[in-house]
User: What shape does this take?
Amino acid sequence: MKTLNDFNFKNKKALIRVDFNVPLNEKFEVTDSTRILSAKPTIIKILEDGGSCILMSHLGRPKSVQEEFSLHHIVNTVEDILGVEVKFVSDCVGEKAIQASCDLQAGEILLLENLRFHQEEKEGNKDFAEQLSKLGDIYVNDAFGTAHRAHASTTIIAQFFPEHKCFGYLMAKEIESIQKVMKTGEKPVLAILGGAKVSSKITIIKNILDKVDHLIIGGGMTFTFVKAQGGKIGDSICEDDKMELALDILKQAKAKNVQIHLPVDVVAANTFSNDAQTQIVDVDKIPDGWQGLDCGPKSIENFHDVVMQSKTILWNGPLGVFEMPNFAKGTIALGSSIAEATKKGAFSLVGGGDSVAAVKQFGFQDKVSYVSTGGGAMLESLEGKTLPGIAAILN
Ligand code: AMP
Assistant: This one.
């Protein structure tokens, strides 16, 4: 795997695909700069080598050129984070971009305008990719968040740098973390899958059964498994058409010697609201009119024991409706168990959408080994897919 360390960037122009698709408020201020911070080590290494950086990214989902999606809004934030002046060019290809790249001196940074102002980016257009490729000497992909897309700047462009392409530090870290869980992690390996629906996690569950020793299933998915085994789930969320599949997963897990852990008790609510009346009941004895919105105290204890035994831990998906404070206890308790196991030497990876939000909201991001920056890219990796952005560098 070629990374930045395989190159010396002295007097070279690095063309870096970053993921600066950051949230902006109504005043066009960056409200979460995690993604810019994540790209900093790569950019600094290149500058310190004596090279220059040409940064390319998308922002949002513009249909064509739309001022509200212009990357010029983030120039000041990027400058503040990097501590270096950032030049900006109002198109990512064409004469202006070529001139700006030619003018760039060692130690300088140039940010190109939003790649998605050109439809060719998402279409993976080869001519467009070739035009972009003319701007730099070495192509660096550090955009894990878009690695699952075969777009011009994430994948197609790599063919124009047969010998001069590599992963940035962020990408390398993401790939390494996934490998630790899926291939090289110390046993026992535990995956915790929560979230709303079995249907959105089914490919991950199937793929992961070959890699783990323990699997905790929580969140809304629980009830499809419980009902399929004859339990009473009241009005809890359930996918009846996935009950066969749930039974099949339990059978497969047994055959593969994977221990599945489901909640044994839940916090049941009489409405889907933070102010609902609640009671703790067994997971398979939920009265009609009540729905399980969080796991209960016995489940929290059981999950704690499993987490503490594990040496490699993957967490995707909350254990309850954590957006409502009264149903966040299970998710918070799990976060703190994982933090404790990590402190004792376990490797822990948190990835994919809502669990990342939960980890940040409850302050665990610095207490786990790694928090992935890519939602969809992470989920596809866990499904066992080779991401086009990664394959393009490896090939
Ligand atoms: P996902 O995007 O599949 O990871 O699902 C995350 C969502 O699952 C969050 O918005 C949670 O509120 C929701 N969720 C977790 N547990 C439950 C539950 N017991 N009932 C309904 N929704 C749930």
